[in-house]
Write a structure and sequence with these properties.
Blueprint: H1 3-25, H2 53-59, H3 65-85, E1 92-93, H4 95-107, E2 132-137, H5 142-150, H6 153-159, E3 166-174, E4 177-185
Parallel strand pairs: 1-3
Antiparallel strand pairs: 2-4, 3-4
Helix pairs in contact: 3-5
Amino acid sequence: MKMNERMKRVFSSILAVALIGLTVACGARDAGIDDVAALRGKGVGAGEIYIDEPAIALAGSYATPEEVSAAVTAAFNLVNTHRANAGLSALTWSDGLAQAAAVRANEITTSFSHTRPNGSDWWTVNSALQYGENLAKLYNSADTVTAAWMNSPTHKANILYGGFKTIGIAIYQGPNGWYWAQEFGY
């Protein structure tokens, strides 16, 4: 090890001990994680570019939670508008079906199918509630996903089935767009 590198390490160690002592002396010894922020020193990493694309892709959130919630609400309202236009009663929101839809929306990012990634049937998320399912991927608005479902005979049949009384919808945000699950019940 060169003398210059050794001096830098010694100086860094002394500085760290001094900062810890200062922090304790100032009463921050019992600070929780909410009291600590991250700070990168000026010049640290200068000229180097770091982009952790796998981590960014896993984060998956490109819209605010409010935007996602608004899209789910809009899809719910559009479904009920289509039902009203067909002379059917409105579906009521089911939190249980919405929870099942959230599971399914997440699952279809890895296996876009009505079979779950573990090989079981789609309705096994909550067999007491789930009796119909519509899935979609990469539609980033309620208008476009509902139009796609209504243009598909089998998806439209679920939306307009008079026996269904409840619904839950969820969106999972993947790196390329939204994954939708719409669950229906009696």
